Every structure is written in structure tokens, then in C-alpha cells.
Amino acid sequence: MKKSYFGEFGGQFIPEIAMFALEELENAYFSIAKSAEFRDEFEYLLKDYAGRPTPLYHAKRLSEHYGHEIYLKREDLNHTGAHKINNALGQALLAKKMGKKKIIAETGAGQHGVATATAAALLGLKCDVYMGAVDAQRQELNKFRMKLLGADVVEIHDGLKTLKEATTAAIQAWVNEIEDVFYVIGSAVGPYPYPLMVKDFQSVIGKETKTQLEEKNLKADYIIACVGGGSNAIGIFSAFLDDKSVNLIGVEAGGLGVETPYHAATLTKGRAGIIHGMKTIVLQDKFGRIEPVHSISAGLDYPGIGPEHSHLHTSKRANYHAITDDECINALKLTTKLEGIIPAIESSHALAYLEKLCPTLSGKKTIVVNVSGRGDKDMNTVMEYKKGTIYG
Length: 392
What we know:
By secondary structure, the protein is an alpha/beta fold. The protein is built from 16 helices and 14 strands. The protein folds into two domains: 17-47 and 84-194, Rossmann fold; 52-81 and 203-384, Rossmann fold.
């Protein structure tokens, strides 16, 4: 297996002009980000700035509703409201130590953009965030937060004006200023070493979950997380990959249904291809052209997925399923009503899978759901939601 691959997926499919920047990043990651000094500073920021560890909460009323023991990993309680801050702090700190003065990022739901802008403000770095115009409109609050934090928000009006186009624009901007700029990728996607590095910075979720389960004398039977690019999922899966007794489930955006063209269910409906510098599973037509995607979730409407998830899917170590917009909104409302927790629309896809999984299980199982973010940013979308509406 090549170092830059997970099974057959991964690699570095980028213009030659960007190769030296990836080599610089790889060298810095292994020399700087693996050092004791860096780790001490990173862990300090996670603890005293971001607010870790996040609780592993026993959702008693959801447990009663589903007939199984449901535990929620509360990434929604992080500073800035999602798991995205873990990776943003790690990459921004690395950029600072590399001597970079400016960082750039792409964002869909806005949570990674906010997290990157937050880390830039903290560390005194300039920051540009690329965001599709459709996403900027439906996540207007996050757009304002980024500007308040001192970032420039660059709206992209190409294509569907969502995450794919924002990512493409961010890569182009990075190539144009490659010697001076650090590209903070928000998910476990892109050319090597990004998928490995993002997994590393998000692995704190899985490590904490494993420790917290042990402290409660519990053994997880299932761990569920939503998957767009896949950073929150690979973060929580990472600590359990070698324990085959733990079932890992990723939940994709089924949009209006995988039998329609309006979804972002990459592993359910895609096939191997190249996107954004990596070989992975991609939603594409018969000619290999990237297909348009749809989800009520601005954070999940991506036509690719992290290469490690493609490997976990093809090796059958993890199972991936699609949840529709409607199922997601119903789960958001149920969790809010029963637990007083308003999850992000992204996270609500993972919660919605409980409705399908729990009736199939015999005996009482212990199920951990990663609540990757909070739903404050989504209230306008929830208020205006109408079944069957195309949002992106």
C-alpha cells in the first residue's frame, strides 16, 4: 500500500505547480505537527479555548423512545458550535509555525469557515473563506460571523454555487498564491496528506468517546455519524477501526431520495473517480462528469467523499446509508422535543438513521451518535422547510 493511499483510494491528483506545496506540507506535518511542543500547544487550545472534552451524554428519552441505549457525543458544545474547530485549530497552528501569514478555506454550511476564521483571529493570520453563493444565502448568519471575525468571504457564483464550486475556487486561489498561503481543508478530503492530517486532528473525538465509554463501563455496539466529506465520521471512527465488534455507520444525504437525481449519496450511488486532488468514489455521469448534488444540508451536498471512507466502504469495515431531507428534519424535531438539544441538519441525518436501525436490533444495544454540530445556524431552513423542495 502506498503511503498516500487508503487501499486503492487517495493519492495526489493536482497540477505540478502545487506539488512542492504538498511536499512542504507533508514535511511540516511530520516534523512540526508530530512534535511534543506542537501537541502540547494544540491540546491546550482544544481544552482551554475550544472547551474539550465534549460530553458523552446518555439520551434517556431517546433511549426510551427507541428501546436501546442511545449516547450522544456532544461536538455541538465545542466553541463555534461544531467539530470543525478541532481541525481548524490544528491546521492554523501548523500554518503559523510554518511561517505562513494567510490561510484560506472552503465552506458549505459555514461551520468550517467560521472555525477557520476563528483560528485565524486567535493566531493573528489573514483569512479568506470561499463559499458558494447559494450556501452563503442559506447560511447568512455564519457568513456574518466570518466577517465579524475578520475574514473575507469570497462568494462563488459558478455551477450550483455550493460546496463543490467553493472547493474548486479555493484550490485555484491556493495555486495562485502557493508560496505564501496555507490551504485549510475542512474535511478528510483532497490530496495527501490532507485526509491523513484531518483524521489526526479530528481523532480527538474518537479517543474521548472510547475513554468515556470505558469510564461508564460500556461497550459500543454501533457508532453512527453523518458523512459529507467525512471528517466528523472519520474522527469518531478512528479509535474503533481495529475493534471489529463495533459496527461503524456513516449516513449520507439522500436529499429527495436516491432514486431521484436530487441527492448527495456518494457511496450509495457513486463510483471511483477523481475529484479535488484525490481518487475516491464520486457521483458522476457515464462520461465521468461530476453530477450535480442536492441536500437540505449545506454541509453534506458534496459529490465526493474522503478516500478513507471509500476504502472503509469497499472493504466493508463500515456501512453507509442515505437519509432523506424529510427524515432528517423529522429527526431534528424529535431530538429537540425529547432531549432539549437542537442538532445541526448535518448531524440530524445520523440521528435519523436510528429510526431505521433500532427496529432491526435484537436485545438492548448501546449506540453512540456523533452530534457533530448544533442547529442554531439552521433555524431559518427548518422554519421554511417544505417537503420536496430543492435547496441546492
